[in-house]
Design a protein that fits this description.
binds flavin mononucleotide; globular; 7 strands; 7 helices; alpha/beta; Rossmann fold
């Protein structure tokens, strides 16, 4: 059985409507898990906000375990939990809307928590090595406008860089763009994204039903 971690980073929760990146993420999940049993864990930042990784957090991690205060233990346990969720997953489905040309602030905070030297990456004489390998990652991106990567889209370069840094190189992208450019453009953007979802490769673990 494969383990899937779904991240929803849209600020829209289910009160008015769910974020489109979250909705499409649900569709990706349905597609990826159609051939076998999977355990799915969902982390929805709209209902479970990710705190900034600040100086107190850094100090908590730098303090020896037996000398940590109660508050420091709580902080370390929180970051440890985020890391464990990623380590245990075979597949990551990450919904990412574009906010002000880049990823939502809470998604950046999440990466600040999970990038930990000696645990999810390490430095060597020839450069850094990511320690989170052997996972399929599907990024589900949504944008109001249309953006060329590297010009006004700081999401894709950032996400590829940080995920690659952590060892996550098997990354597919589903992109719904032009969503705020009128009805026709929105419909086209959603259609393109849904075609990309249909064409997603299903992870080997799901095809065989074997645990990774
Ligand atoms: C605070 C905020 C900032 C946004 N900034 C951008 C932007 O810089 N470029 C863009 O194309 N769309 C921008 N949008 C539009 C969103 O990317 C678009 O509505 C997307 O579908 C939102 O996804 P969601 O529903 O999953 O949150 C912004 C939307 C919000 C709420």
């Amino acid at each position: 059985m494969s383990q899937v971690l779904q991240i929803k980073s849209s600020i829209f929760d289910n009160r008015e409507h769910q974020g489109i990146s979250s909705q499409l993420g649900d569709e990706v999940l349905a597609r990826l898990t159609q051939n076998g049993e999977s355990r799915v864990q969902v982390r929805d930042f709209s209902t479970d906000p990710v705190p900034y990784f600040d100086h107190d957090w850094l100090q908590a991690l730098s303090t020896a375990a037996e000398q940590r205060s109660e508050e420091q233990r709580r902080k370390v346990a929180y970051s440890d939990q985020l890391i464990a969720e990623v380590q245990q997953a075979d597949v990551l489905v990450i919904g990412v809307p574009m906010y002000n040309f880049t990823v939502p602030a809470m998604l950046k905070s999440w990466t600040d928590h999970i990038a930990r030297a000696g645990v999810t990456f390490r430095y060597t004489e020839s450069g850094s090595v990511g320690l989170l390998d052997n996972k399929q990652v599907v990024l589900v991106l949504s944008t109001g406008g249309k953006h060329d990567e590297g010009v006004s889209d700081f999401m894709r370069p950032y996400l590829r860089t940080i995920l690659g840094f952590l060892g996550l190189k098997n990354v597919s992208i589903v992109l719904a763009d032009g969503l705020n450019m009128g009805e026709e453009a929105r419909a086209q953007g959603l259609l393109r994204a849904r075609r990309q979802i249909e064409n997603l490769a299903i992870a080997k673990t799901e095809q065989t039903g074997e645990a990774a």
